[in-house]
Amino acid sequence: MVYVHLNGKLIDAQQARISPFDHGFLYGDGVYESFRTHHEKIFDFLSHFQRLRHSAEQLDIPFSWSAKQLQKWSEDTYRMNKQEESRVRISISRGENGYNFSGALSPTLLITTSPLVQYQKFKKGVSLTAVHLSRLLPEAKTMSLLPLILGKQASQKANTFDCIFLNENGYITECSVCNIVYRIEKTIFITPKKEALPGTMQRIFLKKAIHYGFCVEEKYSSLRDIQNAEEVIITNSLFGTLPVKTICDKNIKQCPGKLFEKCEIDFRKIYQ
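-> structure tokens emitted (272 positions)
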């Protein structure tokens, strides 16, 4: 039996019902966060909670839940499903709201869990492709995931781990499910904050890199810029960090490089 947390109640997933008039289903009108467990505890929950609340504010969806409440519900759902390490997702839609796209009469809140994919086999390096796609409102994590779907389709066709998004000016923003950074000598280049979702794992990774003497610079970067980097790394709250070995079939100089070797975030080695 699989359990979900729907609107404050922990129930059998087969009994869960969401209205056919829910804005999340009809319009992709909602926000979400995905995060993981580590040693049977939610990892870095507060960062995800703060981003979830910010995303809801950006869409004008009322947000009445506390961090303590959502964390407890997430933990209850995880424990009831008796999974090992899990991916946890909190989804909040505008709910039934007629044709009104401001505020919400009764937002829908759903918490689900699923077994965590094992990423250890990718630690020696992954390949990426690139597509001209952009997300609307990149600072919010919304349910409107058509760019992600098209990006994943492009990645599957190219037989790569993920794909890089290039905006209308040809600049790198992010990947379909992760942030991307690259290094030249002691400088780490990241996408300007207003152009990409602020990654919770990227924040942890950059803090660690600064501790080891690297500096961080925001830059509008082209595909050629990142292909010519000494080292490229992707970050995500589920897998931590992964080194990149090729981008659009061009080899990256170092994989893994000294930045990854010093600052790798490996959940097998985190005990907190």
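The chain has a mean pLDDT of 94.
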